[in-house]
# Entry
Amino acid sequence: MSVSMINAQSGENRSNDNADLQIRRLSPALGAEISGVDLGAFVDDATFSAIHDALMEHQVIFFRDQDMSVERHLELAKRFGTPTYSKKLPKYDGNDYVSLIQSNGSTINVGGRWHTDNTDFKAPPMGAVLLCEETPSLGGDTLFANMYAAYDSLSEGLRRHLDTLVAQHDNSLVALRFAGTEFVGDGDKGMSVGPAVEHPVVRVHPVTGRRALYVNSSYTRRILGVPPTESEHLLNMLMAHVMTPDFQVRFEWQPGSVAIWDNRCTQHYAPNDYTEPRRMRRVQIDGDVPVGVS
Ligand code: SIN
# Structure
């Protein structure tokens, strides 16, 4: 099934006036599915505010059966912030701000490791809006994990210690994984390794004020100011901790499904467990410089 079969009506004639949003939690940890909204139509301020509140509460939100043009997709992302110029991933129809994530029997997929998007940036993206256009008949799900819960479940003493630490992040591992694959964007053929950046190990969310664990196995290289072996052991322990199933939700895509996630308090992972085609359209949203516990 392709996304164009879902709703043939033009987005121009549809509206969300008096939208009656229904929010259903998908797991105790995080994630909610929202119905009663048409993302292919203009999203008015009241509807956007309800969507934004749901994202702040549930950290990742999902929608089904959406017929959302590229223009509406970008417009929705812009309500959250500035879309990221898509340099590393292939462009969708040549659009600088829309990325194509496509697998066709690949042995590697773009999100196939636990990560928070681009923590190799000084100001990593705040989130993304991902639309599924085509999904395998089995597999191709995405898992999300709650980094508030990962932090909150640690012992008080360890939390106080982590609150003081800073870690170095870079894209050397990502560059290695993607070298020579179809996932390397037009603007950065070799996916060059950029300079390392530093982020607090515990991030304070700029909207909710909650503390979230902010290290991930794709980009975090070492914890600064401690001996290398201590950094290695601490990171290994934290990486295993963030993968605890209790912190997760798993989303099964269908054509027309949309996910919006908040990178400031989540990680995600897209298992490479399929060989049939999978095709997603993605707009990433710029974020701010992470602030730690003061
Ligand atoms: C991503 O990591 O942004 C992609 C997730 C996915 O393809 O499900």
